[in-house]
Amino acid sequence: MPKAKLDHAFVFAAQCEPGKKKTDWYDTTVTGFVLECRCSGGRTYYLRYEDAAGRQKQHKIGRYDDITFSAAQKAAQRLRSEVVLGGDPGAKKALARSIPLYRELAEMHLADAKLHQRSYTTTEMYVRRHILPKWGRTRLTEVDTRAVAQWLSDKRAEGLAPATVEKIRVIFGRSFELGSRWGVPGSDKNPTRGVPRKPLNNARERFLSAEEAGRLREAVAASKNKQLKHIVGLLLLTGARVRELLDAKWEHVDVERRIWLIPTSKTGKSRHVPLSTDALEVVDALPRFKDCPWLVPNPDTLKPFVSVKHGWQGAIKAARLRGLRIHDLRHSAASFMVNSGVDLFAVGKVLGHASYQSTQRYSHLANDTLLAAVEAGAAKQKVA
C-alpha cells in the first residue's frame, strides 16, 4: 500500500508499478483519498473508507482524464467529512442506482391496467405514444413538477386537445400513485401534482328529439348489422353505456322482476337498471344462439362486439344525424326522462351516476316541466 502526497505533479507522473495490474497510491493528507493507476495506463480517483458497520467501501470520484486534481481533492475532502459525521457516500450512490427508470414503472402500471381497467388499450396507447418517448429513460426521482408542466405545455402547443393533454397528465400521475402504493423507490412524490390545469369544458350536449329518435330507429332497422336495432333500442330505453350493453349476459336479465343487473360499471360498482315495457319487448325480440351467454353478441363470432362503429356510421348517415355519437343515446335517454317529469335523483340512479353533480348537467332539460309548474301556480293565483 504505497503512500504519497498526492498533488498535480505526482498524479501527472504516477504509473502502475512494474509487474502489477494496478497500484493504489494513498494520499498522506486526506485519509482514504486514493489514486488507482492501472497497467493499461488508466488512472482513477477514489475515496476508501469504513461504513458504520466496519465494512470497507470505496466511492469513485472520477477518472483522471475527466476531472482535475483540484476538483478530485475537494471532492475527497467533502466525502471524508461526510464519513466522519456518520454518512455513507456509497450507500447514497447505491440508492440512486436502485431508483428504476420510468419505463419500468410503466410496465408495472400497464400490467395492472390490463387486469383491472376496462380502457386498457387507451391507457396503453397514451403511455406508448406520448409518455414513454419523453420519460421512458428517466429515473423516477429525476421527474420533477416543473419539467412535467413544461412538457404538458409543449403538448398543448403541438395542437393536442386540452382533454387529451389532461388524459396524458392523469395517466402519468396514475403511474406514480400505483408506484407509491407498491413501494417502488422514487415514486413517493407524484410530479403531476401541482401542475396548473386549465378548466375543461368538454361536455358535449347532444340530445335527440322524438322525431330524430324515430329516424334513427328506422335507419338501424335497415342496417346490415342485424343486432344494431336491438342495441340502439336498448340504449335509448335504458340510458346504459354501450360497453355495458355489449358485455351484458342473459343471466343478468330478470324478466319477471323487470331488472337488468350490470355487475361492473364505470364507477366500479354493480347496479340494477329497471326495464320498461318497451325495453322488455326489445329483449323478447332478441335472437337466441345456442350455448351463447351474451345478450347481443356478434352473430358471426357469438362473442361481444368489439365495436359497432361501421354499422353506426351508416345508420346516422341514413338518418341524417351526422356527428351523433353512440354515447349521445345515453344523454338522450336522460333527456326523455327529465322532460317527462322524472326528478334528477331518479334519473341519476337509472344512469348509475356516482354523484349528484353528474346528473346536474341535465337540469336545464327540465324547462318544459318547470314551465308547466309555474303556469299551474299562476293559474291557481288567478282562481284565488
TrEMBL record:
PANTHER family: PROPHAGE INTEGRASE, PROPHAGE INTEGRASE INTS-RELATED. GO terms for biological process: DNA integration; DNA recombination. It comes from Phenylobacterium hankyongense. CDD domains: INT_Rci_Hp1_C. Gene3D superfamilies: 1.10.150.130, Integrase, DNA-binding domain, Intergrase catalytic core. InterPro entries: DNA_brk_join_enz (IPR011010), Integrase-like_cat_sf (IPR013762), Integrase_catalytic (IPR002104), Integrase_DNA-bd_sf (IPR038488), Integrase_DNA_bind_dom (IPR025166), Integrase_recombinase_N (IPR010998), Phage_Integrase (IPR050808). Pfam families: Arm-DNA-bind_3 (PF13356), Phage_integrase (PF00589). The keyword Protease does not apply. This is Integrase. Residues 203-375 form the Tyr recombinase domain. GO terms for molecular function: DNA binding. The keyword Nucleotidyltransferase does not apply.
